[in-house]
């Protein structure tokens, strides 16, 4: 399985955004929207929608959202992120990635107000916590440690038992 111990994992979930209702449902909770066109990615802010398009302003992607601009759908070791006292990358769980058809926005640059027709959206991905894989990565080392610790106790106990029942023949 290639699972590393005590890690946090996420997976991508594809969703459809084809109209105002689906756009509002996906954007619930103040999600951070990243729009991709070709090899470029920008943050979409001040979003509103109507029946045919999503509107907003393009801005640079903030530093805490730069690391996971692309992800592999099924990597062998899983999509991991760090979450500890010194480094917390869990902001990626608030991201929405919208992928556009090439040439949808002729001026794909910062500080531009844009209109994105729903028909130009090729793919929409949410990054969600992979609870099963995360839990397993924390559980397996605990079980392994318990088995090793238990084995040491058993071997020690058997050794002490055998030692206490040994008859020493000193040759007297």
What does this structure look like?
The protein is α+β, with helices and mostly antiparallel strands and 172 residues long. The protein has one domain (8-134). It has 2 helices and 8 strands. It has helices at 20-26, 131-164, and strands spanning 8-15, 32-37, 40-49, 53-59, 79-81, 95-100, 113-117, 121-129. An 8-stranded mixed sheet has the order 5-1-8-6-2-3-4-7.
Topology:
Elements: E1 8-15, H1 20-26, E2 32-37, E3 40-49, E4 53-59, E5 79-81, E6 95-100, E7 113-117, E8 121-129, H2 131-164
Parallel strand pairs: 2-6
Antiparallel strand pairs: 1-5, 1-8, 2-3, 3-4, 4-7, 6-8
Question: Summary?
Answer:
The protein has 172 residues and is an alpha+beta fold. The protein contains two helices and eight strands. Strands 5-1-8-6-2-3-4-7 form an eight-stranded mixed β-sheet.
Number of domains: 1
Q: Identify the overall geometry.
A: elongated
Major sheet strand order: 5-1-8-6-2-3-4-7
What proportion strand? 25-35%
Distance between the termini: 61 Å
Biggest sheet statistics: 8 strands, mixed
What is the count of DSSP helices, taking H or I runs of 4+ residues? Answer: 2
| Total beta strand runs | 8
User: Mean of the pLDDT scores?
Assistant: 77
Quaternary structure type: single chain
Radius of gyration: 27 Å
Elements, N to C (H/E): EHEEEEEEEH
Helicity range? 10-25%
Class by SSE composition: alpha+beta
Give start-end ranges of low-pLDDT stretches. 143-147
């Amino acid at each position: 399985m290639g699972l590393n111990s005590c890690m946090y994992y996420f997976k991508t979930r594809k969703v459809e955004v084809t109209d105002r209702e689906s756009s509002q449902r996906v954007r619930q909770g103040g999600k951070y929207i990243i729009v991709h066109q070709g090899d470029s990615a920008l943050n979409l802010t001040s979003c509103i929608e109507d029946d045919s398009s999503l509107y907003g302003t393009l801005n640079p992607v903030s530093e805490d959202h730069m690391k996971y601009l692309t992800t592999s759908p099924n990597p062998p070791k899983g999509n991991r992120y760090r979450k500890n006292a010194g480094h917390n990358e869990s902001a990626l769980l608030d991201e929405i990635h919208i992928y556009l058809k090439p040439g949808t926005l002729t001026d794909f640059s910062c500080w531009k107000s844009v209109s994105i027709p729903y028909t130009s959206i090729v793919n929409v991905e949410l990054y969600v916590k992979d609870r099963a894989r995360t839990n397993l990565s924390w559980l397996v080392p605990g079980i392994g440690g318990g088995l090793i610790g238990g084995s040491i106790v058993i071997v020690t106990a058997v050794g002490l038992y055998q030692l206490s029942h040994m008859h020493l023949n000193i040759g007297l």
